[in-house]
Amino acid sequence: MDMDLDSALRRLAEQPLHPRLAELEGDVMRLIAAERRAGGGVTLRTGMLAAVGAVALGVVGGGLSSAAATAQVPALTPFGPATPLAPSTLLAFQ
């Protein structure tokens, strides 16, 4: 079995195009046009409401997650006053 990607793509390109694949773009465009004529598409007002809702949800969710993240993250600095991982705090003096 040949594992060379270039030769596999070359063989694939040499094969004839499937008949239904040649008609696919036209079929899709006809379906889109029919949907627009039927009025089943998204109106400008609906699209704007969805966009505003998505932005609001992102702002609120991002604000809540960032507030929660800053409250939970302990500061681990090597030279700070509270260094829980410093060797002197890890040694057991008895």
Outline the structure in words.
The chain is built from 4 helices and no strands. With 94 residues, the chain is mainly alpha-helical. The model has no long low-confidence stretch (mean pLDDT 75). It comes from Sphingomonas molluscorum. This is Dihydroorotate dehydrogenase.
How is the topology of this model organized?
Layout: H1 5-14, H2 19-38, H3 44-72, H4 87-90
Uncertain spans, ≥5 residues at pLDDT below 50? none
Helix percentage: 55-70%
* Largest sheet geometry: none
In percent terms, what proportion of residues is strand? under 5%
Annotation, overall tally of beta strands: 0
Number of distinct helices = 4
Oligomer class: single chain
Query: What is the CA-atom radius of gyration, in angstroms?
Result: 30 Å
User: For the residues shown, what is the average pLDDT?
Assistant: 75
What is the SS-derived class?
A: mainly alpha
Distance between the first and last residues' Cα: 69 Å
Global geometry? flat
Strand/helix succession: HHHH
Features:
single chain, 94 residues, mainly alpha, 4 helices, 0% strand, flat
Question: Gist?
Answer:
The protein is mostly helical and 94 residues long.
